[in-house]
Amino acid sequence: MLHLNLTLLLVLVLGSGLGAAFPQDTLKKSCSLSKYQFLVPHELKAVQKMKEQFEDIMLLSNRKCNTRLFHRKWRIVELSVPDRMVLVEAELALVTAMLGLPAAPRFAETRQRPLAFLTQAREDLRGCMATEAPSHQPSGKLRHWLQKLQTAKKTETPGCLEASAILHLFQVLNDLRCTALREQCT
Description:
It contains 9 helices and no strands. By secondary structure, the chain is mainly alpha-helical. The longest helix has 21 residues, at 41-61. Residues 1-28 have low confidence and may be disordered. InterPro entries: IFN-lambda_sf, INF_lambda.
């Protein structure tokens, strides 16, 4: 019994000593958005199919919206990489929330694949933000856009927000690509 206790104590002491030898930061998952530099064709086709189907629905509904959320006077390349991460995370949050709204069965089925892809991209981006820029404060132009987003969420109808998010989905994907490319985006 005494031999078992000594063995257990030795294992605990050695284990804690080895844990100190390897910094905890090296055990964390590294940030990699490289898979979003060049999007997989079948993901782009799924997004395109969903967008086209939505445009057909929009023609039938005759919806009037004033949302100009994705019309910006600046381009994403003008932002720092941490600002890009904040921007794209906010865009993906809006898009995934809108794709999660109830929809007609056929359209709900069409948007499942893009929703899963965009949700994964957002989670990957959040992981990078937590490791690379945990306390980043957005620049003035980005802060202004984020305020515009919050105002739109309060004043626009869910249908108009959904239309804006889906119709500008390729802009969001390009912003994601530019964020993944870091400084090389044009």
